[in-house]
Amino acid sequence: MFASLLVYTLLAVNVFSASAFPAYESLAGLSRDELDAVLPTLQSAVPQSPPGPLANDKTKLINDAAHPHLPLKDGDIRGPCPALNTLASHGYLPRNGIVTPTQIINAVQEGFNLENTFARFLVFSTFLVNGNPITGLMSIGGATPLTGLNPPKPATVGGLNSHNNCEGDTSMTRADFFFGNNHDFNETRFQHFVDYSNKFGAGKYNLTVAAELRNFLHQDSLKNNPQFSLVSPRLFTAYGESVFPINVFIDGRQKDGQLDLTVARGFFQLMQFPKDFHRHDGAISNQGFDYVYNKYPISPGANTKGVNSYKADLTSATLFQPCLRYSSFVNNNIKALYPNPTGLLRKNINTYLQFLFESTAADNCEQVFPYGKDY
Predict the structure, then answer these.
(1) CB-CB contact of 330 with 356 (8 Å)
(2) Alpha carbon 308 to chain centroid, angstroms
(3) CA–CA separation, 271 and 84 (whole Å)
(4) Which of 4, 25, 123, 189 is within CB 3.0–4.6 Å of 19 for a Cys-Cys bond?
(5) How far apart are CA 279 and CA 287, in angstroms?
(6) What's the CA gap between 294 and 298, in Å, rounded?
(7) What's the CATH superfamily of 32-363?
(8) Is 60:282 a contact under the CB 8 Å cutoff?
């Protein structure tokens, strides 16, 4: 339980009384001094340093006796990412869908052999926008009180269902946000996946299919979604989404890059590893995204005046500008959510930003410090 509102009038004389302050309301509206006094009393968590790469990245059995698939219980949360949904339903992540960044990095490495720095960038960029930097918790689906007391607005702590970061328009199996439900499996969308696999992949999903389907999805949103947007960071996750099933949903003992459609449905809809599933042999990241892009190059942009009004956004990072992606994400996305964090909130955000920057080491990016270096 947290401090009651009465406490705020007593801060000047350093009186603190734990009582019935609602545990999951927002701290919006409090002054800077009030925030600095209250935040340290919350159920905060010191950010955990990210784990390193696997000691052994060879293929191994993942759908094992220690990780059975279990049906959802009341209150369990799932969202737009079939990989995380599957990991949670098999117990590689907490089955209720409330996770920490460290748990996600460990799970995607262990379950799918995702390359360490790639996993860290995805996780910390997603967490900083959709998670709670005070408690260190994030929902893999919608917003929930289980992630703890929310930081002050405009922060949202909306979970992975939040639009235009990890989730976004042109999804293969989820509808565009404009049309309502952007997070649950959509059979109509999946049928496009099936149809294009049959037409271009002889009944399998592969890189050829990925390129054709990506182009179709872009054109479909352009023609039907007046609010269609495809800019950084969603631009990156959209192309990552196209190749991810080929890279990690195919059994690691299979080397042909051909994803079976029954296996694909198992991940996308049923949140379930195939029987006897082995992870990818060797760490892997976004292999193949350049092939998908080069077949039908698309500039970042959005519909600006209704459908069929796509205009390029020259301020957005392209797929081949990782450092601009990093710096604009920090200076624009994070600053918009946390314009002036103080105390514990600022310290934790700076720590997570440091973890994010460290994952860009191979790109030789210049570090940005939106809140200063003293943390």
Answers:
(1) yes
(2) 28
(3) 9
(4) 4
(5) 16
(6) 9
(7) Chloroperoxidase-like (1.10.489.10)
(8) no
